[in-house]
Design brief:
It contains nine helices and ten strands.
Length: 264
């Protein structure tokens, strides 16, 4: 069977996307490198920290949208840097104003500056408000399957459990919890945070994740544009491997032909 026969498209808020790699825009040395890396990644969705990046709120400063065109990319405003529900909700509403009524947002409410671990209590509060306010909420969360289920029940269109702490590059630290979330979720599950290199992204996709979002793994690489290209291929390879279905793991090799009927 062909890939198109086996696969289902990535659909978020009613829109279909070709790429299953979502990329951030922070930590690059300048806007030119940002644009080049995103181009190399092949991503369709680009996430932007509204509190840290100028997308029009500061008219006299360089505007990220000059290198990341909303006509080409889906801009995904995020609430990075918010530490309570009220702050996150205000940030999403600001993004909606700046982007002419745009409702697709990535919600993240952080617990502290040291770990950047999600504050799930404030995340649940913010998600409920934003969904009622008409936003299409993709939500960064812990790898707790119960919290993921509650966020889905609230009406979030995608849950985004961390693989490891933001910016650590540790890879998937708890594949067992992630597997439970994948088995139970009825909305897309995207790994968000913790990816360090291409193999981490491939493993997430092989597990059945709908997509992977990353920033530091690309921006903090020695050669970000090259790493962006590596991540593009890693995501594609992981998805193909998931669809193909890997061979069973065995302790020993077995004969390639049956032994029955062999003359001894």
């Amino acid at each position: 069977m062909s890939q198109s026969q086996l696969d289902k498209p990535l659909v978020l808020a009613g829109k279909t996307y070709n790429s299953r790699l979502l990329v951030g825009t922070g930590k690059y040395k300048d806007l030119n490198e940002t644009g080049e890396a995103i181009e190399a990644s092949g991503a369709d969705i680009v996430t932007v920290a509204v509190r840290r990046t100028n997308i029009g709120q500061n008219p006299n400063e360089p505007n990220l949208l000059d290198v990341i065109s909303p006509e080409r990319y889906t801009i995904l405003p995020n609430t990075a840097g918010c530490y309570d529900a009220a702050e996150a909700v205000r940030t999403c509403r600001l993004a909606r104003e700046l982007l002419d009524g745009h409702t697709l947002v990535k919600l993240e409410v952080l617990a502290d500056q040291k770990t950047l671990f999600p504050n799930v209590i404030e995340t649940l509060k913010a998600a409920e408000i934003l969904v009622k306010d008409g936003f299409d909420v993709m939500v960064y969360t812990s790898d707790d399957p119960i919290i993921a289920r509650q966020l889905e029940e609230i009406g979030c269109i995608a849950v985004m459990p961390l693989a490891g702490l933001i910016g650590t590059g540790l890879g998937i630290c708890n594949p067992y919890n992630l597997r439970i979330i994948l088995e139970e979720a009825k909305v897309p599950v995207l790994v968000d945070a913790g990816v360090g290199t291409a193999s981490d992204a491939t493993i997430a996709m092989e597990m059945g994740c709908a997509a992977v979002l990353m920033n530091s793994a690309i921006a903090n690489a020695q050669h970000p544009v090259l790493m962006a290209k590596a991540m593009k291929h890693a995501i594609e390879a992981g998805r193909l491997a998931y669809l193909a279905g890997r061979m069973p793991k065995k302790l020993y090799a077995s004969a390639s032909s049956p032994l029955d009927g062999v003359v001894r």
